[in-house]
Amino acid sequence: MVDSVEKGQQIQWTDSISVPDFPIIPYIEGDGIGSDITPAMLKVVNHAVSKAYGDKRAIEWKEIFAGQKAFDLTGEWLPQDTIDAIEKYHVAIKGPLTTPVGGGIRSLNVALRQKLGLFICQRPVQYFEGVPSPMMHPEKVDITVFRENSEDIYIGIEFKAGDTETKRLLETLKNQYAVDNIARPENTGVGVKLISEHASKRLVRQALQYAISQEKEHVALVHKGNIMKYTEGAFCHWGYDVAVEEFAAKKVEWGYEIENPNNGQKILVTDVIADACFQQVLLKPENFDVIATMNLNGDYLSDALAAQIGGIGIAPGANLSDRDALFEATHGTAPLYAGKNLANPSSLILSAEMMLRHMGWSEAADKLIQGMRLSLKAKEVTQDFARHMEGVEGLSTSDFAQAICRHMR
Ligand code: NAD
Question: Residues in domain Isopropylmalate dehydrogenase-like (predicted)?
Fold first, then answer.
């Protein structure tokens, strides 16, 4: 690992990303198992880059701080320097962060997404042969979720039951807006759900562009608009508007159809009610390619989908704006395993694979995936997978990283 920033250069962004041969990439180690999985990820990425490009390219890693490590060093959970560094270098990667209890911050992850304007959470969910799964045919799961990251109830506008303000708000709703089904305003909490045209459209726009660039056949807008018409329902309408106005979509029986300008294939854009979607991704996962949805639906759906392919330990994620990208392990800090060299680093390693593709370093990304696929196929896995596999002894975090490197050809 190169930690000193010597010959490294900044990734630039004008109309698109421009990556030098020795880019400086900031990383946040993360709390709990962060100190186990982040060194494993750095080792695997460095090896993949070196296998792909020899000494012509290398990443110069720059550690930045958030969470407990930041608090111990600076007295702040999320220092401004960390936000500035991600904005400056455009691409960064992070381990999981503890949510400080009783602090002023609800969640460091949410704070990072909001401060950096990372409005998309992209979660590709695909199966790797050899990974234990509760599904009979987990190989049929290959779905990328585009979850809106900036609004919905995650924006955190909440009013506590019993507070004077809350009672006043509920009385106003009752009297001024004739909301007549608030049975007990004196002990009812309130959460505000915000869904805007702007945020819905930019999310769906990115999902459609992804479907075009990755030659996918189906984009599903997932919502609960049958119940929440002006938020979830509006998201669906605005999504279709983007398809029609910006991608020349034509009405067909089940939704709309876009012609992919790259290959002439049709992309079907449909909408699916959220509860039905949870059933269908279990029964017919092969019918789904790309899902675009709001924050809360996306939160539930991406973890449920991850379970279908072996769990959040192997599901990667990226938080994106038009310019900046923060790749992250999708699981938490797993305090039970912290510092024991036992945790599964796959989620963070596969997030790094997304990062390499985002940078246009697809040869290194391919090496990384090859190493991961062959390790898993050879049953060289960490203990969380091994305990569901007969006769398989689990590897430590570092030995698993070593196995991935060994399997890169
Ligand atoms: P968690 O993801 O840490 O753990 C859930 C379960 O999965 C536990 O049984 C854990 O041992 C297991 N697990 C998770 N990652 C694993 C891995 N890589 N290898 C093996 N097993 C793994 O969720 P939690 O317990 O709800 O949360 C713990 C802390 O993490 C909380 O402070 C929470 O706020 C935080 N958190 C952070 C993020 C993030 O940084 N993106 C996400 C979720 C939770």
Answer: 24-404
pLDDT confidence bin for 1, thresholds 50/70/90: very low
36 CB under 6 A from ligand 1?
no
Residues 305-332 have a mean pLDDT of 94
CA 248 – ligand 1 centroid, Å? 42
Please compute the mean of the pLDDT values over residues 287-294 and round it to a whole number. Answer: 98
User: Would you please indicate which residues are annotated as catalytic (active-site) residues?
Assistant: 154, 224, 275, 299
pTM, two decimals, is 0.93
Assess whether the C-beta atom of 337 lies below 6 angstroms from ligand 1: yes
Q: State whether the beta carbon of 117 lies less than 6 angstroms from ligand 1.
A: no
Determine the average pLDDT of the residues in 64-80: 95
Nearest residue to 108 (alpha-carbon basis) of 74, 81, 70: 70
Question: Amino acid identity of 242?
Answer: V
User: Cα–Cα distance between 394 and 154 in angstroms, integer?
Assistant: 37
Helix spans in 214-335 (H): 234-247, 274-283, 295-308
pLDDT of residue 103: 57
Q: In this structure, are strands 12-13 and 17-18 parallel, antiparallel, or unpaired? A: antiparallel
d(CA 75, CA 230): 42
Residue of 99, 333, 350 to mutate, ligand 1, most atoms within 8 A of C-beta: 333
Percent of the chain with pLDDT over 90: 88
Shortest-distance Cα residue to atom 36 of ligand 1 = 332
Note the Cα 103 to chain centre separation in Å: 25
**Which residue spans of the chain are classified as CATH 3.40.718.10?**
1-126+312-409, 134-153+193-308
Give residue 248's pLDDT band: very low, low, confident or very high (50, 70, 90): very high
* Residue 5 predicted with pLDDT over 60: no
Distance 332 CA to ligand 1 centre (A): 3
Give residue 333 CA to ligand 1 midpoint distance, Å.
4
Three-class SS state of 179: coil
Distance, CA 120 to ligand 1 centroid (Å)?
A: 21
pLDDT tens, residue by residue, 102-112: 656 678 988 89
**Which CATH number does the domain 1-126+312-409 belong to among 3.50.30.50, 3.40.630.30, 3.40.718.10, 3.40.190.10?**
3.40.718.10
**Distances from the Cα of 314 to the Cαs of 28, 346, 353, in angstroms?**
19, 5, 12
CB of 343 sitting under 6 A from ligand 1: yes
CATH 3.40.718.10 fits 134-153+193-308, yes or no: yes
